[in-house]
Amino acid sequence: MLMKIEKVPVEKISIHDRIREEYGDMETLKSSIRKYGLLNPIIIDSEYRLIAGGRRLKAVRDLGFSTIEASILDEQNNLVKFDLEMQENLVRKDFTEQEINKSIVMKKRLLRKPFFVRVLAAVKRFFRSIASFFKKK
Fold it and tell me: What is the torsional sign of CA 61, 66, 71, 77?
């Protein structure tokens, strides 16, 4: 089973016999694609039929993209194509509550200014307060 990744015109991709019927909240995905681009290519067959990545395809269509990165599957066996769609949607794991909490702590740490920057700001505030004290007198 060979796959090559190419930029494919969005309008060439067709959707047939998909398992997923509910796309869910698309705004979060569209926001992510706007900010970071498409993180993972969709999977299509050599006839440009969607195999996996329906939500990503819908999001880029909604956003007006003209092309999308796609892994093009060189496989004609419909059972393999079906299994790929199932694998992409089933073989994944959501973050646990503990992992989500850990991610919040990590992001706060990344957003926090480095120690020396905070110290420098405190020193500046100290000298400004001293200067303003002498200006009053």
Answer: positive
**Which CATH code is given to the segment(s) 1-92?**
3.90.1530.10
Q: What angle do CA 102, 110, 40 make, to 5 degrees?
A: 75
pTM: 0.72
pLDDT of residue 137: 60
Domain ranges of the chain: 1-92, 95-137
Angle at 108 between CA 34 and CA 31, to 5 degrees: 10
Flag residues of the chain having pLDDT under 50.
none
Inter-helix orientation angle 54-62/27-36, to 10°: 70
Q: What pLDDT sits at residue 37?
A: 95
* Residues 125, 68: Cα–Cα separation, whole Å: 51
